[in-house]
Amino acid sequence: MPIKECKILTALQDVDGLADIQVYKQHGGYEALEKALKTMSPDDVITEVQESALAGRGGAWFSTGMKWSFMPKEPDGPSYLCVNCDESEPGTFKDRQLVNRNPHQLLEGVIIACYAIRARAAYIYIRGEMWEELEQMEQVIGQAKEAGYLGQNVLGTGVDIDVFTHPGAGAYICGEETGLMQSLEGKRAEPRVKPPFPAQKGIFDRPTTINNVQTISYVPHIVKNGASWFKEMGSERYPGSFIYCVSGHVKNPGIFELEIGGCTLREIIYECAGGIRDDNELKAVIPGGSSTPVLTADQLDIEMNPELWAIPGRGEFQGMFGTGGIIVMDDTTDMVDACLNLMNFYAHESCGQCTPCREGIPWVRDIVWRIAHGQGRPDDLDTLESVCNNVSPLLTPAMSTICLFGPSWSWPMLGFIKAFRSEFEAHIQKGAGVTTA
Amino acid sequence: MPTFTINGQEVEIQPGRNVLQIAADHEVEIPHYCYHPGLTAPANCRMCLVEIEMGGRRGMMPSCTQMPAEGMIVDTETDAVKANQKAVMEFLLINHPLDCPVCDQAGECELQDYSYTYGADHSRYHEHKHIQPKKDVGEHVLLYSDRCIRCTRCVRFCDEISGTSELGYFNRGVHNEIDIFPGMPMDNRLSGNTVDICPVGALLDKEFLFKQRVWFLQSADSICPGCSTGCNIRVDVNKERIHRLVPRANHDVNDYWMCDDGRHGWGYVHDDDRLLFPTIGQGDDQNLVLWTAAIEHVREKLEAVKAEHGADAIAGLASSHLTNEEQFLFGKLFSDGIGGGTIALQDATSSEGDVAFKSGFTIREDKSPNARGAQEILSAVVGTVASTDVVWEGIREGRIRALLLMGGNPLARFSDAEREALAQLDLLVVNDILAGDVSRMAHVVLPGAAFIEKSGTFTNYAGRAQRLNAGLEPPGDARADWEILRDLSNAMGCEFTMDTAEEVMGEVAKAVHSFESVTHENAGSGGMQIEAAG
């Protein structure tokens, strides 16, 4: 069965000059905005999005409509929308493409979302490294303002909406939703303790909804075509499309927008991404960003439908679906080295606010470093598992840290040991002769 | 009242109190580091996680930020809770230097205590420790970052209480550390509190550094005599010396804090210039005498002045550094013993005015602990408290021939004009703690006791009577001032039989309306409000 392409967000990605509002409008741009603001009440929009079952594409897959419904209907002050464009999850590069190729699509979604949740302003928090996209976004906002889609009295409806960009200053933790809010307020990006949740106390202690770029980009399409159109695609609980980013040892890396559930992991790797480089054997796949536990070559026939995965769908497949960032490794890969590379990343990026993460991840990294450098100890794997379990056991909701950064390294670490224990043991045994400790 | 359950026990929800606090009210201890009742709670140490079940969902939540709700089930002793406590202890200790033998905090360290109760007996850590530097962060405070557990209590203190925000949180992950900004030391006048609230040995008081092992210290609850706020303090002593003052919590007075001026202001207690023995005679002719001789000498001289010039020729300069009990006896000495005379109260107001901090904590311009009590009691006992100008004028004009000068204020200074006036007196009796030019001018010196050497009460600016307890003996032959004044009053014809300051307070209550219900017992450890005057 050939893979069904399902281009919603990337349909126009090869159109030149799409960052120009006129070009965007020639392709139907801002029709959804006109429809929403002129013919729908804010609650109508929320209901439409809720009925579409749109789920957060940042990796958590939480119902977007439900998130919006938590916002106050009659706010006693400003509410805010925040767009998370701090895409930093290793292996994930879809948001950048969306902002780069079709910025008006995002902005249109942002304005409609602001209208729906009665937000006075939106902040698009753009990763600092995406400087071109930030500058382009500024221009796009200017064009929309001139066209009357933004600012005071949008389209004559009496609604005021402003959109601001904010460059990140370069930390992975700024992508955690409350860390992002702290950063936006000019503070250290230290995730906040929840409750209170952002819908109660978010940016500047005001009710805030925070959504991922990809999620918001769907909004104009859902408003324009209706929830039932969206629900015709994808799976029942998770309708629509999803953008996969395939990287690593494949012949044709890139991004692929596919219908949810329409294919298996194997098909994405071998059909969309052209298979393994040099026709090597596939050894391991990280299915959805570096925080998702690694899978082995015999697990590739799982359907790419989050419902079937333990997380988020509570399905039987013991894996985490994640962000669509598929990292493929062939049989030339040393799994201990690969693991060390990831743990170095997490040790570097832990904010250090709470004890288990601050102290745990450098410890884990140091142990993996020793194993990789022939200085492993017989009890190292037990210690690694125990330390990780003290932070968050694999694919369980239990965690001792403030935010999900803890599970973001404990799960992949446990995943590496679970999938490739014998390689770790081999390194330890090989090093046993030269260990000095 | 809505209720919830802690370890199977049904307890009431109290508005504004979190699970950790309510548990403590019911004698369920939940260990914690970052939480401090006087500061906001970041829930970053993760030590206070407990199992909470609500609406069919069960999970580990920080008890310091969790507010209880009707029907909530809290369990603090499950396997999961204990496993987390053990894990957090392990995490906190892997990079800790474990230098307890040379650490000031040893013996009162929450890392030690919790390690013993909740931790493991061995380490699984084989890696190199991430070691952080030792830093000088301010006039009074050192920061040994290697011991720091990054609970951020100190940072929050400077943000929320002093409002000076000198401390920040730098770098990321295991490299993050507390520090000052370059060239900007922690120089707020509440800085010493950061040492108190540091749960480990990271923040250290320079004055206390390496001075004492804390288990040798004995303590007396007292009141800071540095200003009229009347911060509740604990005085830690060993071998007849004070080693440090620390605040005691009192929400009606000082919350959990005290200022550095008060904290480090006790040096005079052990000054080489302390007056140790009663003396008779001026300047180089001062002769050490027994108390009976000194008192008898004062009596003779006072009687002589009274016989020659009348009781109005005798004046007293009261001191608001003395206790309520002492003010009473001083008043009685004049009203009942001398049968007249003039009393004025010396002023201890500084020129800096009140210094208030973000939290409302205030260092007051009145640098004496008991002006309010002195005013209330003296005016009740002798009728009118004159202005000091009246006394100085009376001396200069020769109407006042004898003066009883009460001291106790280590900062008291007299002007040249005042010293010239004192030199004209037929009789100058100085009751003080420190030798100085005025004590050398005195015909009789009566050595009194510093605040930590006697019991009694001070009344703070807001009319709160608070107890001080003796933690040390007065040096040499020096005595509690109330004992001196009692004996002097009796020599002048009174018949006081009290043996304790508490008994003196019984007499104060009878004589002074606003102190009607004040007893040492009623004042307890946190003090009590006196009645509004009038």
Radius of gyration of chain A: 22 Å
How much of the residues of chain A is beta strand, in percent? 5-15%
Instruction: Report the end-to-end length of chain B measured between terminal Cα atoms.
Output: 40 Å
* Gross CATH architecture of the largest domain in chain A: 3-Layer(aba) Sandwich
Write down the overall geometry of chain B: elongated
The named CATH superfamily of the largest domain in chain A: NADH-ubiquinone oxidoreductase 51kDa subunit
Please provide the ordered H/E string of secondary-structure elements of chain A. Answer: HHHHEHHEHEHEHHEEHEEEEEHHHH
Descriptive labels:
heterodimer; A: alpha/beta; Rossmann fold; Ubiquitin-like (UB roll); de novo design (two linked rop proteins); 3 domains; 5-stranded mixed beta sheet; 4-stranded parallel beta sheet; 11 strands; about 40% helix; globular; B: about 525 residues; alpha+beta; 15 helices; 25 strands; elongated
